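hi! just following up on the protien thing from before. the input was this:
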Amino acid sequence: MVSPAPAGGRGPRRVVFAAGSVLVVIGVVLHVPSYWMTRDDHFAMAGMGMSPAMTTGMVLIVLGLGAAAWSLLPTWQRTAARGSGPRATRYAALDDAGFTRAHRALVTVLSVALVVDTMKPASLGFAVPGMRAEYGLDAGEAALLPLVAIAGTIVGSLLWGRIADVYGRRSTILLSALMYVATSICGFMPSYGWNLAMCALMGMAAGGMLPTVYSLMSESVPARRRGWIMVAQSGFGAAAGYLVASGCSTLLVPHYSWRALWLLGLPTGLLLVVLRRWIPESPRFLIESGRQEEAARVMARYGIRAVPGAGSGPAEASTDRRSGTVDGPGVGAEAEQRRFSHLLSARYRVQTWVIVLFGVSWGIVNWGFITFLPSFLTSAGAGTRAGNLLFISSALAVPATFIAAALYARWSSRKAMCLYAALTALVLVGYAVLRPERHGHGGTMVVLTALLLIASGGMAALLAPYATEVYPTALRATGSGVAAAGTKAGGLFGPLLLGSAPRLEGLALVSAVPLVAAGLVLWRHGTETRGTPLLEATVPGRPVGVVRTRSGT
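and the predicted 3d structure came back as:
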């Protein structure tokens, strides 16, 4: 039987986390009356003032987030333990472990987290047409919304990735989920300025979830299954998130306006908070942090038991390619390797820039092209059919993610990434040549959009595990955050591309150019990660052997 992890901490901290969560929910609910009173005007709130209840709700949300954040931070004693005690545990045992029910529960919950996370930015394209109509925005003003939201995700990816490497993966995921709940009030904001501010915060929450989820997955799943599970999970999360966003647009927007897309943050964020019981902390992070007892408890859930005194003695500083263990010179070196600047050291500089370029090229396509597809379809006369067309395309793209997973795990990680970059560029050229936005070409639009979501979704699915496999545990979430920030940074070029290439075919061709460049650079300088263990940084100490147990299988 799978034992759930403690919910939000132990003792008083658990109570504080629960109280903070309740305050956040109450703060959001206090905004509902102002929204509902506009139902006769199709929930148009433009021009309304902030009611006292809404102001009170915002105060409660801030207090609740602060309380929850405090409850999730490690205690002073836990933080002080970092770098102390033996840390020569054989990480290979984690890679060789069986795939237990605890693993399956973790994969399921984190897959839900990815779908929820992807819904947020994917909803932008479906919300923009309604916002333009309600607030009377021109194209330039409307473009500020995705620009601000994307800027928020960049900050969130960098900031939360770093926090996850310092304070832990689980705490970061839970706080991001609560921020989803809090920022759902974006759907209640009466002015466009307030919408921009709330969407920036929503972007910060979304940006923090992705790198943390991928880091936790890579550090918890056995090596034999890690590659294909992470790629399939990443691709499924991206495709299914877009599918859910387009489906919600079709079902909810006609009845509850575009604002309903932001209000979904309340139930989806709460869902992740409820499922936290099946999200244990990363055992590799705990070992790296010197929290050996906690690591042993988590490893026991996965059917692994630590046995002190087993194994060989300390080795000189070296890299063991078979076990994936790097024996470092000591705690001082470990602290040095935790710095953000270490990503640009001689050891990681090339791979960091390869990852950033690949992410930016994908971000240009996703944020500069796919995000504006609903607007192009609406302008071309598709009307409400735009959401239906994209919903069908998203549904067709979901099962194809398993092809990318098989190629990554069985063929080559580097070559698979290059292949999907080339395929994405080819589909964009197809948009320019076939002009599917014209009237009477709905079938062509569905096929091309499905192919684009398959190809670009494959790029995103492959980049996520690749970024976690080229950095050690001390930098894994930070490096994954840089990769995620790169994907969002491409979105900053979206409004610029839309201004320079206002027609669909021009935007498609402009978006294809960086893809070709990224594919060539990756082919030349990328690292092959298929079949290699995760990099780890350990210091000499009394080694700890590990054995598998039948518990939890």
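Residues 1-9, 76-90, 307-336, 537-553 have pLDDT under 50 and may be disordered.
The first strand starts at residue 304 and ends at 308.
cheers
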